[in-house]
Design a protein that fits this description.
alpha/beta
Length: 107
């Protein structure tokens, strides 16, 4: 099974409108690597896919059988719902809550 791990890369972005501790939501490179290793140890092909400007195109081309989503989103009050909404739109199976649940719980 090809499992895609979606995640955020902690990078320099404008933090206007975000909480002061917004960076605390992001996973470290070591955590991402550990998650990919754990998926691979279960016998699956593990591929990391960071959330960036080219994310949707790369997601469409990923050949995903399942998406493990740990992405928090980039900005806005419903940022955590971005990736699940795209996954629903592309009809890709994924773990975790759907976009509506995440958007409501952030509000």
């Amino acid at each position: 099974m090809r499992v895609i791990l979606t995640y955020d890369e902690l990078r320099d972005i404008a933090s206007d409108g975000l909480p002061e501790d917004f960076g605390a939501e992001y996973e470290t490179a070591a955590t991402i690597e550990a998650l990919l290793d754990a998926i691979g140890a279960c016998g699956h092909e593990a591929v990391g896919l960071p959330l960036d400007e080219d994310f949707v195109r790369r997601l469409q081309q990923s050949g995903a059988d399942l998406v493990l989503n740990v992405a928090e989103g980039i900005r806005g009050p419903q940022r955590e719902s971005m990736v699940p909404a795209w996954l629903d739109h592309l009809d890709l199976p994924y773990t975790g809550s759907d976009g509506l649940s995440l958007a409501i719980s952030l509000d």
